[in-house]
Amino acid sequence: MTVTLDGKALKEKLLQQLKVKVDGFDKKPGLSVILVGDNPASILYVNNKKKTAEKLGIHSEIIHYDIDTPQEVIINKINELNNNDNVNAILVQLPLPPHIDKFKIIDAINPQKDVDGFTFYNSGKLFSGEEPFVYPCTPKGILLLLKEYNITLEGKHVVIVGRSNIAGKPLAMMMLNNNATVTLCHSYTKNLEQITKTADILISATGHDIIKKGMVKKGSVVIDVGIFKDENGKTRGDVDFSDVYPDISYISPVPGGVGPMTIISLMLNTVELYEKSLNNK
Amino acid sequence: MTVTLDGKALKEKLLQQLKVKVDGFDKKPGLSVILVGDNPASILYVNNKKKTAEKLGIHSEIIHYDIDTPQEVIINKINELNNNDNVNAILVQLPLPPHIDKFKIIDAINPQKDVDGFTFYNSGKLFSGEEPFVYPCTPKGILLLLKEYNITLEGKHVVIVGRSNIAGKPLAMMMLNNNATVTLCHSYTKNLEQITKTADILISATGHDIIKKGMVKKGSVVIDVGIFKDENGKTRGDVDFSDVYPDISYISPVPGGVGPMTIISLMLNTVELYEKSLNNK
Fold first, then answer.
1. Best mutation target, A119, A188, A192, to test chain B (most B CBs within 10 A)
2. A222-243 pLDDT, tens per residue?
3. Nearest to residue A236, comparing CAs of A249, A226, A222, A246?
4. Would the CB atoms of B172 and A184 count as touching at under 8 Å?
5. Is B279's pLDDT higher than 90?
6. Given an 8 Å threshold on Cβ–Cβ distance, is B176 in contact with A184?
7. Set of chain A residues whose Cβ sits within 8 Å of the Cβ of B165
8. How much is the average pLDDT of B177-205?
9. Which CA distances in Å does B1 have to A18, A43, B219, B250?
10. Of A67, A117, A247, A250, which is most buried, counting CB atoms within 10 Å of its CB?
């Protein structure tokens, strides 16, 4: 029997637990989200983040810039937030417009307030097998979801399709730190199906419908990180859910799988940074 | 016919080219090597590095500390070297004694003088797909060796055995940046031979004799990063050279393969940091 990994339910459970913790704080944790431009998906994402933060009693602000805002203006704002004691967590919503050097912006964030874990310092720590201030949200959410269902990683062959800095690469490092064997595939990979078929845990994060029947190992775990609208306007993921469902043990759905886990991980990270900031005083 | 990848010859060729360049500099580049304790292998390595640097006209010093030197003394020395304009490159010979926090020491190095590319900043840049000040020496040397023999990486399946911060992990990132599909194996990997047999390029970096006949794909490339003395005192690598030789296309020997390429990469990195320091003035 195949089990559907219920990210939505786990998110709600973790939200309840986290709310109790936040209610006990003397001061509200603060999350600042920087949004540049009017990408509709980005607007949806940042509003979701703000709404979830407010449910928890986390103070949240969206700092919204026009698409043609100069890079220096954003960096100056980040420096201001770095020095603001009411802000524990800073998030820059990606993607950024092409005139902006993404890494210049991200790396302006104080690593102690880097709630996505994307600064060179935090990603270098993750890469080196050391503990960053916080772990990137999407991989963190996936590991929490696997843990909830007692799916272990040690000695497993984890095949990741997609090598982004947001999902594929940090996920590879976190899987490696948990003693999984890791394969990273991408658009240049040849004979993809021959590799995905060897996966004990297959994780796809491409935003294209690429995982179909015959590409998965019998009894394996499939995690779908992709999310996009198909030609009929239906929200779907990388994996043909009904096609592979009969062959595998566990699968995360889209929507309701990795997406909610990413949001709750952002909230957990915000609270972790808040708690670490108290310890530093 | 199998080709043996001659790292020693390529090192000599690159040394000649680099010497011409260094001879043209107004001022000598400076490499400072910090050694803590009396590990015989480490002493051999740092002396080799110093000798090679001197051949090139690079000013090199070994700063040798007793094994029980406090961490702060070493960090203070690194700060001094960071501020010394005659020093372009700082290397801390690993391993360090157990009372020392390796990452505190490494991360004290100014990333612009981090000749091994091991600081969080530089490894975070590598991880993020951005150009670090320099690339770690062993992976850099392997890529130079493959390039010399026109062995391309795009679309190849590269299987790496060993996940150290010095070799396996940065190598994985550099292979990924060159559009190879990458699998990272290690001591927890199950059915290792089934994975290694799928490699177009197999790279072993464990320091144990683990790669034997039947573990390699016909016609593949095998790179041996391991180096140790066997029970008869003979220097050897991870790969049973004569055992796998008939089945493959290319193999790097031990000694004379990756080892010399690591040393010449250190020299190339020292000169690169020197040149970058001039551009920063």
1. A188
2. 999 999 998 899 999 999 999 9
3. A226
4. yes
5. no
6. yes
7. 127-129
8. 98
9. 64, 59, 9, 9
10. A117
On the question of pLDDT at A10 being above 80, the answer is yes
Task: Quote the CA–CA distance of A64 and A67 in Å, as a whole number.
Answer: 9
Question: Which active-site residues of B does the annotation give?
Answer: 49, 93, 116
Check CB contact under 8 Å for B128 and A120. Answer: yes
- What mean pLDDT is predicted for residues B115-131? 98
Q: Which residues in chain B touch residue A198, judged by CB atoms under 8 angstroms apart?
A: 194-195
Q: Which domains does chain A have, with CATH numbers?
A: 27-114 (3.40.50.10860), 137-259 (3.40.50.720)
Q: Is the pLDDT of residue A138 over 80?
A: yes
Establish if A122 touches chain B: CB-CB under 8 angstroms. yes
On whether any CB of chain B is under 8 Å from the CB of A78, the answer is no
The shortest CB-CB distance from B155 to any of A169, A180, A188 is to A188
- Residue A125 contacts B where some CB pair is shorter than 8 Å: yes
Query: Mean pLDDT over all residues of chain B?
Result: 97
